[in-house]
Amino acid sequence: MNSCVVGLQWGDEGKGKVVDILAEQSDIVVRYGGGANAGHTVVIGDSRFALHLLPSGSIRPDIICVIANGVVVDLEVLTNGIKTLAEKDISLDGRLFISENVHVVLDYHKKEDQLREESLGKNKLGTTIRGIGPCYADKVGRSYAVRMADLRDLKALKAKLQTIVEYKNKVFGAVYDAELINADEIFKKCESYADRFLPFIIDTTEYLHKAIANGKSILFEGAQGSLLDLDHGTFPYVTSSNSSSLGMPAGCGVPAKLVDKFIGVVKAYSTRVGAGPFPTEQDNQTGQFIRDKGNEYGTTTGRPRRCGWFDVVAVSYAVTIGAIDSVAMMHLDTLAGLKELKICKAYKIDGQEKTFFPANTDKLSRASAVYETVPGWDEEITEVNDFNDLPANAQHYVCRIEEYIGKPITVIGVGPKRSQTLFR
Length: 424
Ligand code: GDP
Ligand code: IMO
Ligand code: MG
Fold this sequence. Notes:
With 424 residues, the protein is of the alpha/beta class. The protein is 33% helix and 21% strand.
């Protein structure tokens, strides 16, 4: 049985928690896209792990972890991730594999990300400054890309980095009037990465297909959310990869046909970090209530997340393009204490009601939300361990959304811990 977990909103839906839970029944967990812009949280007892590049299955000691070709890897972040787990006596030796085709995020990518955002002023995208856009741009551009396989031939890499850095410095100097970078320093870092990571590098496509042929169970872990998808999200306020489940086959060389189940993750409301249209945003006391109660601050950047009501139009779109089979809804506990809740069931755009999500940013920014209002509940639900023991209004809220999106909500989060999860 192979499954894929993917975010159905703008990221941070709680994918880390869901992947950690499902990993119990898997042999291999695969990250197939994005990079260290991701921040996936797993909470087990009193321990909290924030994973940026390692798959969220890595906390379980016997799971094989794969970073496939579609990911862009910052080896400094990966080194720190491995170190953090080692400090908790979790070793990745012999169970972490990185694709030789993974593109490497280097210092000049992060610098370019930052300089471009700064130069855009109020028009900035609000990226995580993790060098994601510039690294994927180099991948698409081809000539100046560095991949894991390049660490095998350091002499050739040194020459390549000279050419790349010469070009980057022209841009940094002429466009941004910024400090220049030093090719030797970058090469030295790459040299140490080669020492550290060469043993982890394999052909992950071959590895995954052999594992499938041998009946292994694979869990594919999406990063970001479907509405941040480069081609299908709210461009340009998106990330630079196909972060919906459409990116999974290209990101790891396994066709979607071989995945038995696509599981979409949502929050019981909506959040978004960074700029871009957000029709159900509550930039008011309700939004602040959700932010405080749900601890809605970025796992990677610490930025306060923008908060708003659940958006059926947006999630239904993500369900449709992602061929989602079932849904996990996190953070139901966060809504306790709100007198009434709103569910966005349609948009009004230029006087017309629309239920198919317009990813086009111009249209979306003209959309006003059409709501159904449902009663809230007062009781805290973080200790509840059966769906039927939830307050009637909480059950009704879940069932109403289920009706709207037309897919079963089979997993419900009532707190950050692994144990605070209900199954139906
Ligand atoms: P991801 O990027 O999709 O993995 O999500 P993040 O880890 O960035 O953000 C989700 C946040 O919500 C983390 O702090 C989780 O610990 C927390 N979380 C996950 N599920 C629940 C839940 O059901 N209730 C509450 N209160 N917190 C949750
Ligand atoms: P996880 O996997 C939430 C957002 C950024 C910004 C836009 C572009 O934890 O859900 P980038 O650095 O990718 O160029 O930024 O995308 N973004 C995320 N938002 N969760 C994420 O990942 C995100 N990864 C990128 O905030 O708006
Ligand atoms: Mg996150």
